[in-house]
What we know:
This protein is α+β, with helices and mostly antiparallel strands.
Amino acid sequence: xxxxxxxxxxxxxxxxxxxxxEIVKVFGINQKTCLRxxxxxxATVPGKKKPILIYGSDLKTFIRQKNSKKKVTMExxxxxxFKCKVPRRAKKGSITKKGDTKKAECCVCSTKMTRKIKPxxxxxxxxxxxxxxxxxxxxxx
Length: 141
Ligand SMILES: [Zn+2]
């Protein structure tokens, strides 16, 4: 149940780097949770081990992803309908495949829906976005 907590990315300042202790304070979480975030893909500042530092902008992105990840879990046969704002089944016979994209119409409102076909299926997991360290450094200097 604790995992359902949504965190507010707005309280993080993008141009500041945070230590684990600071993140713990800001979000009122414990250190273990923060370390788990890092294990889950929260990027740390390269070359900085003691103390571990995390860019505010990376933390914001991570929190946003984390929040959005909880909103939708789709079954293999479902599509996300942007009109209904929920995962929907496709209308019978409306599914078409093109490359690695599947298209279909919502069974309720007939809105066109698309979804990527994954080459392999790991339990609905969004890989963490690669960090553009160069631009981050440019912002800091
Ligand atoms: Zn719909």
